[in-house]
Write a structure and sequence with these properties.
Largest sheet: 9 strands, mixed
Structural class: alpha+beta
CATH topology: M1 Pyruvate Kinase, Domain 3
Strand content: 15-25%
Helix content: 25-40%
Number of helices: 7
Number of strands: 14
CATH superfamily: PK beta-barrel domain-like
CATH class: Mainly Beta
Order of helices and strands: EEEEEEEEHEEEHHEEEHHHH
Radius of gyration: 18 Å
CATH architecture: Beta Barrel
Distance between the termini: 51 Å
Number of domains: 1
Shape: globular
Length: 222
């Protein structure tokens, strides 16, 4: 069981480019309906990379903010839960605690991990700090997206409960470490790609890496 805070937000312009973004979130003050495309009242600017069925809800582990503050100390006061655009924040989970195939309950909704977040340039512009998105990616501090298996209502104070654990399957941390390794075994990547619930886009990315490794295996041995 994990305690969570809820955040939603409207679109706002970024400070330099003026590009619209949904990264600016505010704490939810009342019950929220959660459907297949996310929380009612929450908005995403670029639907190619945020939102939609496989990226309906973003969770960011609260403990990561201490790591970010250690690397970017001038931004410590701004690095607080909700500031990276997440819908859910918790001090009780990180990427090593969630597995592909797990089913979680939040309020009356049911959720399933679909993929890690891919941090982008908007994080750097939001904080006025070049290199933050790269640091997040390189250190696996990404958080993750959930898909909504069953819509429901979520009330501030509700807790995430693991309803159907996928014991023995890879954690998200395992999968990200393997994908970032220099030359991971192609078969291990394919095993990750075959796990239930992985978003199609992330599965394709893993299989492309596995295919490249198989194609270049002979070159490595010569």
């Amino acid at each position: 069981m994990a305690t969570v805070s809820l955040f939603i937000g409207d679109l706002r312009p970024l400070p330099e480019s003026g590009r619209p973004t949904g990264i600016y979130k505010q704490p939810a003050t009342g019950p929220l309906d959660l459907g297949g495309e996310g929380f009612a009242g929450d908005h995403q600017a670029d639907r190619r990379v945020h939102g939609g069925p496989d990226k309906a809800v973003h969770l960011y582990p609260a403990a990561h903010y201490a790591r970010l503050a250690g690397r970017f100390p001038d931004l410590t006061d701004r690095l607080v839960p909700g500031s990276l655009g997440e819908n859910l924040s918790t001090p009780d989970l990180d990427e090593g605690d969630v597995r592909f195939g797990d089913v979680w309950r939040l309020g009356t909704a049911r959720l399933q991990l679909s993929q890690p977040r891919n941090p982008c340039w908007k994080i750097d512009e939001r904080f006025g700090c070049e290199g933050m998105a790269l640091f997040i990616a390189e250190h696996g501090l990404t958080g993750w997206y959930w898909r909504v298996l069953a819509p429901g209502r979520v009330v501030p104070g509700d807790r995430l409960e693991l309803e159907s654990p996928a014991a023995g399957r890879p954690t998200l941390a395992d999968a990200m470490a393997l994908l970032q390794a220099h030359r991971p075994p192609a078969g291990e990547l394919e095993h990750i790609a075959a796990q239930p619930g992985i978003a199609d886009g992330w599965r394709r990315k893993i299989l492309q890496r596995a295919g490249w490794l198989r194609d270049h295996a002979a070159g490595r041995s010569t």
